[in-house]
Design a protein that fits this description.
Number of helices: 5
Strand content: under 5%
Largest sheet: 2 strands, antiparallel
Number of domains: 2
Oligomer: single chain
Structural class: mainly alpha
Distance between the termini: 58 Å
């Protein structure tokens, strides 16, 4: 339905009364809320006042959120060492000796741990504990690292 003079006057009247665009659209009929808003804008009708507070003059004090850090669990990452390392070269490494790398592979004096391992494992008890951590410990460690990471 086109905007007739009567409909525009009715829109202005309802707008001045403070009705919402949805309510005006319902009163006028066959117009959408967006059509009312667009027409009001084109007519240069004044912007709406911010809605009045419903607290009737009573000031509301909001509680502040307090961040309380939970106590951190201490993660024991110290290896259990019951025998000294026996640095072993690549040529001398054999089954039953720990294959944990010591140093960088491209270095001349690159060695492996060389401690005795349990049957069927490639690392000694200490290095096995470092290499195969429960997923929960890995997640905890990541959280701690993330907490102290510099952005």
């Amino acid at each position: 339905m086109p905007w007739t003079y009567e409909r525009i006057e009715k829109l202005k009247q309802l707008w001045d009364e403070g009705l919402t665009a949805s309510r005006i659209a319902a009163e006028l009929g066959e117009v959408t809320r967006n059509a009312v808003i667009g027409k009001a804008h084109r007519l240069g009708l004044s912007g709406r006042m911010a809605s009045k507070s419903k607290n009737n003059g009573i000031s509301i004090i909001r509680k502040k959120r307090i961040n309380v850090s939970r106590s951190q669990k201490v993660i024991d990452i110290s290896p259990v060492i019951d025998e000294p390392m026996n640095p072993t070269s690549f040529q001398d490494i054999k089954d039953g000796l720990c294959r944990w790398p010591l140093g960088e592979p491209e270095e001349i004096d690159f060695k492996f741990c060389g401690r005795n391992t349990n049957e069927g494992f490639v690392y000694c008890q200490a290095h096995h504990k470092q290499a195969y951590q429960p997923l929960s410990k890995v997640r905890e460690r990541k959280k701690i690292k993330k907490k102290f990471r510099i952005s």
